[in-house]
Amino acid sequence: MSDTPAPAPQSRLRRAWNSDFAWSFRHAPVAIISSFVVLVLILAAVLAPLIAPHDPFNPATLNLMNGFTPPGQANAFTGDTFLLGTDDQGRDVFSTILYGMRISLFVGFAAVMLAMVIGVTLGLLAGYLGGWVESIIMRVADVQLTFPAILVAMLIFGIAKGITPPEYRDQMAIWVLILAIGLSDWVQFARVVRGATLVEKSKEYVQAARLIGRSPFAIMLRHILPNVLNPVLVIATISLALAIIAEATLSFLGVGAPPTKPSLGTLIRIGQEFMFSGEWWILFFPALALLALALSINLLGDWLRDALNPRLR
Amino acid sequence: MKFQTGILTAALLASTAIGASAETLRWARAGDSLTLDPHAQNEGPTHTLAHQIYEPLIIRDMTGAPQATLATSWAPSADDPSVWVFELREGVKYHDGADFTAEDVVFSINRAKSENSNMKELLSSVIEVRAVDDYTVEMVTDGPNPILPANLTNLFMMDKGWAEANDAVDVQDVEGGEQTFAATNANGTGAYRLVSREPDVRTVLTQNEDYWGMDQFPMEVTEIIYTPIQNAATRVAALLSGEVDFIQDVPVQDLGRVADTEGLVVKTAPQNRVIFFGMNMGADDLANDDVEGANPLADARVREAMNIAINREAIQQVVMRGQSQPAGMIAPPFVNGWTAEMDAVETDVEAAKALMADAGYGDGFSIQLDCPNDRYINDEAICQAAVGMMAQIGITVNLDAKPKAQHFPLITNAETDFYMLGWGVPTYDSEYIFNFLVHTRGDERGSWNNTGYSNPELDEMIVSLASETDLDARNEAIASIWNVVQEETLYLPIHHQVLNWGMTDAVGIEVSPEDDPKFKFFEMN
């Protein structure tokens, strides 16, 4: 019997607050700031219909005469004032950024989910089953790695656009973007998961599970998957930033989101036309939003990688 | 022999004189020529490049005035008013050394009248071309055609022997995606010969030192490097940084910036070109809309509603920054038949809504708008503005903007229901517009009429214009055809373009209303 009293039962929240992970978070100002920025931007995007003063996706509400209004100044023809000015079609830049960010974030999240599902599945299969399954999956991955992801995405986008009927093209553009970015980005997940699976496969708990006769799929799903998720989480975060940038790049090149429903990349493409003529706000604010979004997600991912890396603890 | 030496000395002298002022002109515009086959596409930039390499019998100089080129004179025959006699220039050689003769004219005109040609409408009144001797050609028309010479200014003369040797007798079928020798190679009589060409990237031309007009034109540009730059900001940056010397389409937002830059000038002039939307009113049901079993565009009330829903002043003020003239008819003011009354439209959204409700489309409908993004000034932005204006009367427009090489075949192949098109009028006469855009689409006429509109009575009037010699009666007929076009709202006119050429101050040239720089006229300081 010991004299020391048993520690008081801690609440879950308390335990989470005192965990290594949270400790590292509390001591990383970069992580705090960037997660704050990401949170604000995501909230702003999700709540866009409530926050935005205009609905830029409804062409009936646009007044062309409002075009090129500088930020905070009244339009010479209509007298309307806009916080961040208007673009060439008279769209409120602030509202368009909020709605555009929705598209960028949605495409980013969905594409990463798709890449993650494909990559983790194939990586698990390759790592656990080995043999010809591994050879085929990893060679395909190698081949795809030799092409820049953006080229693969453009190829997929081109094919998908070719086979969608024209009347659905605008609605389909978003889904095609997700497909294109998702399919071009699974390789990273597959390679990391395969590596981790190879390590886990030889550990005792897996062999024990095998001995009691669990099916390979149950072992992969129930035993190995939870143990390889840490690196997946890190890659997913960094991939999210890359996917948002990939979407912006595609839209900037004119093959992504349509100009009537612009994402951040489309807005930057439009604004870029007016770079020389003094209407800086059309380019500047969407670019700033994209920069803030991509940079803070990236910093967050960086910190996450350090925090979850046992060797750095 | 002595004579030949004389020519040689003159040529030598001329070449040294040119050598002293050897000038490369780096030229850029938004889009490229669609093909080098001179009869395959009746399209501005395609003709502009062809004009440097090939020549027609008659050209328009940089002011738009007709000028003898491969023909030295032309007149109706004294015996038969239905025959035009052309005297040809002697001693002209093709770039490959072959002589230019009457046989080549007969070949070229017949080629331009053949099935795949996109120039047929200009020659629809010509029933026979014959060579009288090596340097005299007669064109027989179906009744006297007083304006035939005006139709020939973009009809280029190919060498018969070269075409036969290179399997280029038939015109390239651009819409069908055919590739031919003549589409990528050229052999003309023009002031410049083709050195290399990579479509959409770079075309290099060099001066033809055997050109017949060496001492008649400035001929100060000795080499031309043509690079299409679709992106407006990149194009301006290229001019500002000195990467190019001459751009044909300074974006309207950058006029001030270019003009204020030392060493650069902007020259402005109204263009002989009108921009408009076309609508497929002839089909029973449209492929690219959401109305089943009916065609909303077949209803004249819907077309009229769309017409008055377009706020042309806003497009002029904001999209074009004043660099356009709002249009109510699809003829530029340069053209015989244009009137100020027809060229004005009042915007009235409320009346448009009432018309839509009247036609049974009070809840609107949705339709796809096809639009080029590298052809006309701010083409995509105009289409986008139209999306908003159509939305105000309940029409949901899905905009599909793409390069002109993919856009134009949609129109000529009847694969679009709602589209943007611009039309320049090199003949300065309404007949040209009617032949291409109003006459029922058929073998001879109407190749760019994608509206599906067919009015046999009107067709008859259009055909008769070619042989009406009484100019007053002809103008009356033109006016009454315009009345029908306007009443039916066959097209939705937007505006007449204004040209803004940007160049270094070394380049001496005035803007031509056709937007077709012919570099032999350019002076280089």
TrEMBL record, chain A:
UniProt membrane topology term = Multi-pass membrane protein
Q: Where are the transmembrane segments?
A: 30-52, 103-129, 141-160, 228-253, 280-304
From the Swiss-Prot or TrEMBL record, give the protein name: ABC transporter permease
Which is a Gene Ontology cellular component entry for this protein?
plasma membrane
**Coarse class of the protein's main subcellular location:** membrane
- Family statement: Belongs to the binding-protein-dependent transport system permease family.
- List the Pfam families: BPD_transp_1, OppC_N
Q: What keywords appear on the UniProt entry?
A: Cell membrane, Membrane, Transmembrane, Transmembrane helix, Transport
All copies of domain ABC transmembrane type-1, residue ranges? 101-301
Species of the source = Salibaculum griseiflavum
Where, per UniProt, does this protein localize? Cell membrane
Q: Which InterPro entries match?
A: BP-dependent_transpt_permease (IPR050366), MetI-like (IPR000515), MetI-like_sf (IPR035906), OppC_N (IPR025966)
TrEMBL record, chain B:
Q: What is its main location?
A: periplasm
Q: Which UniProt keywords apply?
A: Signal, Transport
Protein's cellular compartments: Periplasm
Q: State the source organism's domain of life.
A: Bacteria
Query: Which region is the signal sequence?
Result: 1-22
Kindly indicate whether the keyword Amino-acid biosynthesis belongs to this entry.
no
Pfam families from the xrefs?
SBP_bac_5
Give the matching CDD domains.
PBP2_NikA_DppA_OppA_like_2 (cd08498)
Q: Which family does it belong to?
A: Belongs to the bacterial solute-binding protein 5 family.
Q: What is this protein called?
A: Peptide ABC transporter substrate-binding protein
Species name for this entry? Answer: Salibaculum griseiflavum
